[in-house]
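Fill in residues.
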């Protein structure tokens, strides 16, 4: 990199000097500078500098809570970080519905993450497999006495080696993959597993005379599984039928499944962010699991039994409650404390439960009023604010927009501005509402 590079050494600058450099480069102006400096208390930005490079500031997101989520016979209040207007509102309503008419149960099995060692062109797969399995116990013990010592002391550590063959089409030779199953206790475990597979590489190469290329954690952690089941009682048959038709659409059509699963992840991601977890890893895991049959499918299944509507969620959700952001970030600590989470599996179960409830909220909206109606009602508050209405004008503009929505099934910022102008020129009933 040449020394005339304006970004040279940028990462080494203090935050103040970095902002000054951005001003000099005209990448921000004075107003942007004020936003960056004032949006979030500087303590958070100091902490952010310990997490990532090139910090300019912190990006505030709404932190909400869905109180009274009844699951496994107890109530939990679930903190969520999310910007989409309807998500917490819909989940809140559904939590109430579940409290009065439903039973939500969850379970979690396994706590191994998978680390992969990739042999692009295996010379002799049978010999590789035999050698790895012959030395498995010694290799695992060595890992547990070295890189994974801390984890082993907490009851986790390297558990098993699995050898897989992946055939290329035609005659191009086979690929082999060795999986290290590693029990990660209450950590998410990606860093530990990455260290373990990198440490394992030279040993396996020496033992097998095969050449290993890539060593990395897998985000399809199907060695652990989180399940949630929701039984809703006394659901009218026509609502059941509509919900089941909409759910079947997502089971059979990947285009619909993507949106259906996005709705499930709306809740799961929001809990992951609130607890400082790696939501991209959970997204990757859930989507990969949704495609396990060779076609991308819905991650939930809905059935009926008499007047009961029954939903199931099943996917690997790998989360941590120790290490990384979860331990360091005060908001993440607060979120875990509020939910009374003591183990990672408990957090995974809460995430699965709210994902399934969020899915019910979406299916119910789609099967009854339609999503626009539901979203738009909530959107009205945003429009009222965006119109520039003062506090004492807001109720009138909101009332007007509600009647526009009822009459036309849609409502826009133009409607809000027109309602406000009409109000200001003295129309008791704004024109748009007439
Ligand atoms: C919007 O964020 C999520 C939904 O589209 C999910 C769905 O369609 O099932 C409402």
């Amino acid at each position: 990199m040449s020394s005339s590079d304006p970004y040279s050494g940028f990462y080494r600058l203090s935050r103040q000097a970095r902002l000054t450099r951005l001003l000099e480069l005209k990448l921000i102006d004075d107003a942007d500078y004020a936003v960056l400096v004032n949006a979030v208390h500087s303590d958070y930005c100091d902490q952010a500098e310990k997490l990532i490079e090139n910090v300019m500031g912190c990006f505030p997101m709404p932190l909400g809570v869905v109180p009274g989520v009844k699951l496994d016979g107890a109530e939990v209040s679930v903190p969520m970080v999310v910007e989409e207007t309807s998500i917490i509102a819909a989940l809140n309503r559904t939590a109430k519905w579940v409290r009065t008419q439903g039973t939500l149960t969850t379970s979690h099995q396994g706590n191994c993450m998978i680390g992969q060692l990739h042999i692009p062109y295996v010379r002799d797969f049978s010999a590789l497999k035999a050698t790895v399995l012959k030395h498995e116990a010694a290799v695992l013990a060595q890992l547990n006495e070295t890189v994974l010592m801390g984890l082993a002391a907490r009851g986790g550590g390297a558990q098993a080696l699995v050898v897989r063959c992946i055939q290329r089409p035609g005659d191009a030779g086979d690929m082999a993959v060795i999986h290290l199953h590693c029990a990660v206790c209450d950590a998410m475990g990606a860093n530990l597993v990455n260290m373990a597979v990198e440490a394992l590489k030279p040993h396996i190469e020496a033992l097998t005379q095969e050449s290993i290329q890539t060593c990395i954690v897998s985000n399809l952690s199907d060695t652990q599984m989180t399940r949630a089941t929701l039984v809703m009682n006394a659901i009218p048959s026509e609502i059941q039928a509509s919900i089941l038709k909409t759910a079947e659409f997502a089971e059979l059509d990947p285009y619909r499944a993507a949106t259906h699963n996005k709705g499930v992840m709306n809740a799961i991601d929001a809990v992951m962010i609130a607890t400082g977890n790696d939501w991209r890893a959970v997204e990757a895991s859930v989507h990969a699991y949704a495609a396990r049959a060779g076609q991308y499918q819905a991650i939930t299944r809905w059935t009926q039994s008499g007047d009961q509507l029954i939903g199931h969620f099943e996917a690997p959700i790998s989360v941590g409650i120790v290490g990384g952001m979860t331990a360091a970030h005060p908001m993440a600590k607060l979120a875990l404390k509020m939910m009374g989470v003591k183990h990672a599996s408990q957090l995974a179960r809460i995430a699965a439960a709210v994902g399934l409830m969020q899915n019910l909220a979406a299916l119910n909206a789609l099967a009854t009023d339609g999503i626009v109606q539901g979203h738009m009602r909530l959107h009205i508050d945003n429009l009222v604010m965006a119109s520039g209405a003062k506090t004492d004008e807001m109720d009138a503009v909101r009332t007007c927009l509600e009647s526009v929505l009822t009459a036309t099934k849609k409502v826009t910022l133009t409607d809000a501005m027109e309602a406000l102008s009409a109000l200001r020129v003295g129309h008791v009933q704004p024109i748009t509402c007439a």
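The chain has a mean pLDDT of 93.
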